[in-house]
Design a protein that fits this description.
With 302 residues, the chain is an alpha+beta fold. It is built from six helices and 19 strands.
C-alpha cells in the first residue's frame, strides 16, 4: 500500500494495530522503475507483520503521487481493504475509538443469522492516516480459519483476506480462478441494514465470493448488485498514487505466469518480468499485472 508519510504509517500500524516492524529498506534504479512503471522512483519499503501475515507500506520519496480521493465510497471499484481479525470486537472498537481512528462504518455490525455463510460475523470499517480502508473482523465459533479462535491473549491476531470491489464476478473469476489458480472457498449474498451500515452505502446488496490459494490470506470479491453507481478505477492510476494497493501472489515460475496472463490480454504495469537485484524485497523475479477492474497483483518468484 502506498503511503505519504512512512513514519506516521509505521506508528499507526505498530502502536494502534499491534503490527511488528520486520525490515526497512530504500530502493531505486532502472529495475524498480520497470517493475512499478514509475520513472525516477526512490521507494522506502517497510515490512510489517501481524501474526503470520505481512503488509508493506511503501513511500515514494520520488516522485510523489496523488493523495487518496477524499470522496471515495465503499462501492467504488478502486476500493480495497485488508481484514484484520480480532479476538474481541467490543474491546477492539473501544481501542480504536481511544486512538481516534476515522470511521468508515457507522459502528461495528453483527451480520444477521439468516445469512448462512456470514451470520454472526462482526465487522467494522475504518481508515488509516492516508485514507486507506481497513476492517476489523471477528469470526464466531465454527466460521473462518480455526486459528482465529486461538487468541493467546492478543487482541489483533492477523490478516484473513483482502477485499476488492469488482464489477462482474464471472469476469474476475477468469483472472483469479482460471489464470492464477485461486479456488472458490465460499459465496454469500449480503444485504439489509447491517450491511448498509458496515459499508456505509445506502441500499447495499453484495454478491461476495471468497477465494483462497494453498496458503496465505484470501481474496474476497465484493460485487455490488445495488447500487451500481460505483466509479471505475482511474485509467491513469499509478503505483505512487496513495490509493494504490498491490496484492502479492507467489508463483513457481514468473515467466510461465506472465505468458499465460499475456495470452489472456491482461494489462501489465511492469515492462514484462523483471529480475530484481539481491532480493532486497524478497523476490528474484516479479511483475505487476491488473485484474479486469484495475486492481494490481504483484506476481513473485522467489
Amino acid at each position: 500500500m502506498t503511503v505519504s508519510d512512512m513514519d506516521r504509517s509505521v506508528e499507526f500500524f505498530t502502536q494502534v494495530l499491534s503490527f511488528e516492524k520486520v525490515s526497512d529498506v530504500e530502493v531505486s534504479g532502472r529495475d524498480y522503475e520497470q517493475l512499478q512503471g514509475v520513472f525516477g522512483l526512490r521507494m522506502r519499503v517497510v515490512r510489517l507483520r501481524l501474526g503470520d501475515e505481512f503488509i508493506e507500506p511503501t513511500e515514494y520519496l520520488a516522485p510523489r503521487g496523488r493523495p487518496f480521493p477524499i470522496d471515495t465510497q465503499s462501492n467504488d471499484r478502486w476500493f480495497q481493504h485488508i481484514a484484520i481479525i480480532v479476538s474481541d470486537m467490543d474491546q477492539a472498537y473501544r481501542w480504536l475509538r481511544q486512538h481516534k481512528v476515522q470511521h468508515a462504518s457507522t459502528g461495528p455490525q453483527r451480520l444477521p443469522d439468516w445469512n448462512k455463510n456470514a451470520g454472526g460475523i462482526q465487522a467494522f470499517y475504518f481508515k488509516d492516516p492516508d485514507g486507506h480502508f481497513l476492517e476489523i473482523l471477528q469470526f464466531p465459533p465454527g466460521k473462518g480459519d480455526p486459528k482465529w479462535q486461538r487468541s493467546a491473549g492478543k487482541l489483533f491476531l492477523g490478516i484473513d483476506h483482502t477485499a476488492i470491489v469488482v464489477k462482474d464476478t464471472e469476469e474476475s473469476l477468469k483472472f483469479y480462478h482460471d489464470a492464477l489458480g485461486f479456488k472458490i472457498a465460499g459465496e454469500s449474498e449480503n444485504y439489509d441494514t447491517e450491511q448498509e451500515h458496515l459499508n456505509n452505502v445506502f441500499g447495499a446488496r453484495l454478491h461476495i465470493t471468497a477465494l483462497r490459494a494453498p496458503a496465505g490470506p484470501g481474496i474476497e470479491f465484493l460485487e455490488y448488485l445495488s447500487p451500481r453507481d460505483g466509479r471505475p478505477m482511474p485509467l491513469d492510476e499509478r503505483s505512487n498514487d496513495i490509493m494504490h494497493w498491490q496484492t502479492r501472489v507467489l508463483t513457481r515460475d514468473a515467466e510461465v505466469s506472465a505468458r499465460s496472463l499475456l495470452s489472456r490480454k491482461s494489462r501489465f504495469v511492469s515492462a514484462g518480468v523483471v529480475k530484481l537485484p539481491e532480493q532486497t524485497l524478497g523476490a528474484d523475479r516479479e511483475f505487476l499485472v491488473r485484474d479486469p477492474d484495475g486492481h494490481v497483483m504483484a506476481v513473485v518468484q522467489r
